[in-house]
User: What shape does this take?
Amino acid sequence: MSDPVTDTAKDVRTRRKRRRSGGLHIVVFLAPAVLIYSVFSIYPLVESLRLSLFDGLEDGTAVWAGLENYATLLFDPNWATQFWRAFWNNLVLFFIHMVVQNPLGLLLAALLSLAPRFGSAYRTLIFVPTLLSVVIVGFIWELILSPLWGVSETLLGTIGLAWLYQPWLGLESSALTTVSLISVWQYVGIPMMLIYAALLSIPDELIDAARVDGLNGWSIFWKVKLPLILPTLGIVAILTYIGNFTVSFDLIYSIQGALGAPNFATDVMGTLLFRTFFGQQLQVGDIHMGATIASMMFFIILVGVSIYLALVQRRLQRYEM
Amino acid sequence: MTETASSHRARASRLRGLSTRAGVHMVLAGYTLIAIFPVFLVILNSFKNRRGIFTDPLGLPGEGTFSLEGYATVLTQGDFATYFSNSLIVTVTALFLILWLGAMAAHALAEYRFRFNTLLGIYLILGIMVPIRLGTVAILELMVDLNLVNTLLALILVYTAQGLPVAVFILTEFMRTLSRDIKDCARVDGLSEYRIFFEVVVPLIRPVLATVAVFSMIPIWNDLWFPLILASGDATKTVTLGVQQFIGQYTVNWSAVLASLSIAILPVLGLYALFSRQLIAGITSGAVKG
Amino acid sequence: MTRIMKTTTATLALCVAGTAALAQDATLSIESWRSEDQAIWDDVLIPAFEAQHPEIDVEFTPTSPTEYNAALNARLDGGTAGDLITCRPFDGSLALYQRGQLADISGLDGLDNFPDFAKAAWQTDDGSATFCVPMASVIHGFIYNAEAFAELGLEEPETVEEFFGVLDAIKEDGTYTPLAIGSADQWEAATMAYTNIGPTYWNGEEGRQALLDGSAEFTDPQFVKPFEVMQRWNDYMGRAYQAQGYTDSQNLFTLGRAAIYPAGSWEIGGFNDQAVFEMGAFPPPVEAAGDTCYISDHTDIGIGMNAGTDNPEAARTFLEWVASPEFASLYTNELPGFFSLSNAQFEVEDPLAQEMISWRQDCESTIRVAHQILSRGEPNTWNTMWSVSANVFNEASTPQEAAQTLQEGLESWYEPQQD
Assistant: This one.
């Protein structure tokens, strides 16, 4: 938990005390959460992921297949093309969120933490899109970007840029970026709030001390506040990484459909998984291949989280208050 | 700090402060506009007839375009009051369970050393790595066995299970940064571990609890899938599902579609506005001061 | 008068009590993807059925088309699906039957009312078992704004060149977008373009059977040509059509801003409500005047019985009613554009629907080319057809490349196509 270098005698004492007090209360604290979570989340998921090791027959029964489905997914050209394309699209999505959403969230949070007038109004309003269902968000943005309504063209026109208008959602070159930006629009409130809360929890004494040392606002932010909120930025990054595989699906499915139009330009792991697992039009759902894709997704996320836990978080602990 | 400084320097810094403040407001106000403009557009157009929506989407409803036909259709066709109370019951209950159970589990993980601590921590966040939707069939079979199909409780249980990992993850991370002295003092004073959690730890993590509450609320309120599978009956339908089905039924009747979207948006905004005061109060009053 | 009334009520009550004792009160729910039809089921179809069978309660509980397959599968696996299940044609439903989730209804009274081609969409390959009652087919063609045509002095085109002549004239005039179709949602490109105009080139059933038995390939000229024609449509579609979705196209046309809508007949109902102008329809144009015309008359929707239903008797009763001439007439007229597949004679009232159903006499009918057997493997031919058709519209693929992709996909798993 704490860096060995900074360990003090007191810490060692406390730890000894804690070990002694271990007992029933730990069970009481953990049991309800573990129980509900195991029954309604882990058990169903294991049941599903297990299917990746079987192959389905026409009559709905299954036979043991070992790792065959994984081989198919990774090496059969039909599947591998789709799989790697979806994986790549997910990486692009993650990249855009990391360079647009999170810095924007940090900027907004930093400005809000200066406690400007109307601060709470800004904060409330900026968070509004995050509250909306993807059904609504998809509908709104399709309308705004649609050539028929002409909203984006008119708006661009008012600043003399009407010629810039393109059917962004429909072009292979821009569809994924556009969807990502819509997602940023919807979710930027989350990093903003997390970072804002972290900034507020920085002790005033630290800031005052820095000021006494002659640092100006700018360098206080970079040299004092930023290092202190690094753990939060780490959480934000890892949540972005996970959400990029799981949450992004809903928005893309609602705007671009199960095939990730146009021409699979927005096909991500989530859409590939959904149409494989549950079927799509004439495509009959294949729970076994679907489960295989899901297991791969799980594996990819697990690798990311492990890297985070092993490297990033350990290093961040140094800044623990 | 400026009290001792010369008046000249004070004026300079006031000026600099002024321009900084203007910059801050420009950025914040600018982004606020981007955030709410689309929502505003939907609400604006829901008060127009179809021709008005298409010919002048940016114009205010006026003569010849103002119409409440959309709202009339929505209010006569759907039972939105029931849908709302369903969504509210599900969201609030699940949220309460997530926060309460999640905080207890996070506290145990952050505070105590015991065998399998790390392992259990990893186990508890595995759930965020696979979309829970995949477990649909097993969940449905479970609910059939428990006789919970078409009840709100089925949704509450699934959402609690779904929300716990993120809550535990964030709360554990924050709890690890809490100062230990305060808890140790309490222990020296002879408080039981339970009282330490409820009376010492919970007040300290209030800001984070409020934040986690807001994040956990969103996917629950907006979920379409589990209401569809577990509780699609008219008595248990949630708002999001109701709206989506409504849109399906009136595809081309955009006045009605936009009206139903507005009806779905407005109460959430109201709730959030209410909740947001608590949230902000929580963040500022409970802020950890070392 | 009052006495007669009382007696009737009493008799009715007795009857109800009698049948109830025999058949038990049952509630049936119908799974469907047709959310739009909620009002018609609630207000017309179900009351008509319940009037004859007061002991059976029926509920229509649709799921939106994007979630239908997924939700239905989950509910079937979990055992909570409705008693009656609206069936997509061919392989989608065949798989459900093979898994034992759709009941065999081969001996059902009233199935004789349907021609073989209609039943084929919901039978096993050898025709030995039937698992859904055919409800309706949808016919493809073009719906146009008759007032716009009159204003510009245009006539319904018969040949492909006349068709482009009409499009040129509309474009020249500039008041209307010539063609209301976009490529954002992809499926319209496959459904309302490729399989709409295609049968003319591959001679309908002849070409479809040739693909099935492996004697023709997607890269043959008759399957490439429709893509070439589609490529020419680009010039006449709305500006920025790449981002134009299905509802956008519907709105563009019904608001009177586009002249021709490449259509499926299912649009008729909605268009009648929304459009304020006269409409007409013409079948897919032929290459040379006098050629046989071909239409896509696609067996689109059927209804079957959940094998796990608690009320098999009541469900069969309902299916028998769906197979009856009464239902055929009610359904076709309440949902103009969904044409009953029944042999029963009935009057079609809606003029636009009348026009479209009349093509059955003049033209050869076929179904969508990818639907039977060809979409059984991975990659799924119908999915591929969506994206390559949209690619042709978007100029992301040439017609040859589009055909090539289809052929390669099919060859990779369909034996008759592997030489």
